[in-house]
Design a protein that fits this description.
Layout: E1 2-6, E2 10-18, E3 23-32, H1 37-40, H2 42-46, H3 51-82, E4 90-94, H4 103-107, H5 110-131, E5 136-140, H6 144-152, H7 156-170, H8 176-190
Parallel strand pairs: 1-4, 4-5
Antiparallel strand pairs: 1-2, 2-3
Length: about 190
Amino acid sequence: MLGLRAHSGWAALVAVGGSALAPEVVDRRRIEMADDPEAKQPYHAVEDLPMPKAAAELARLSRQARERAAAALGAALQDLRAEGYDVVRTVILAASGRPLPPLESVLASHALIHTADGEHFRDALAAASEGHRLPVTRIREKELRAQAEAALRRPASDLQAAVTAWGKALGPPWTQDQKLSALGAWTALADPKY
């Protein structure tokens, strides 16, 4: 299972293998999806453009992010398969999960621009995963601990301690990005509905 947590222009990827009772982190890396300031914050970059130009530029930046995500994800999958792992699903940590309003409304609200920038990269990761024939599950980040607790049948504090311990054994980087990505992948490993 792959767990992904997106940021502006990149995502943390953690691959968890084994079983739900004996999981192990088998890979972790950074997925780059943008290489310049405009591409890293696409909605911010177009907020002052006329609507047709803004839409066209967003479409271009979306294609670019999807292509970069697909290439980076493909490299990770190739490495994992070469080591004998069969990746079967991607878990993408989501924000609120509410659909965005029309582009005009997004660009009129600074808060929605931030939300849209995040969705831009989560959508790129989903498209890349689907392009590699991996089903995608989105789990709202604020619900992850409760869903993990239910799927793994262990208290959230035990799960958090286990994920933290993985990082101690692996060494840096093991920030909140990797921890949440790992927990998302472990949750999906435990429950086929994900």
